[in-house]
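Page 47, continued from p. 46.
Same chain as before, 113 aa.
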Amino acid sequence: MTGDPLDGAELVAHWAFVYDCDEDRGGGFVSGQFLLRSDGVLLWRMGVSSYHDGMSTWSFRHWKPFPGWEGETDPDRALRAIKSMGYGLHEPGPTPIDADTAGPFPPERPRWL
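Result:
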């Protein structure tokens, strides 16, 4: 999905995530962002940050629909549902939802939800 991830809907919530992959899936961690729209669509994109000379730069893939999402629009219920799937959620970084990269910025500690 390229272009406007809202596609005419309103932004309900935007979170960053970290997920600890099971060993049978290769182990390790992945990170990215979730975007919840007013039409109940949950989008996600994978991303990474790089650190150089005391600054962080963010880079993300394109937004895609999150598989199997049931169309929840309440941000508190959606947050609980996503966390129950094993995702660690925190406030998103400085990359706008309609951009794939941002930075460099001074690094910040995540504010976990």
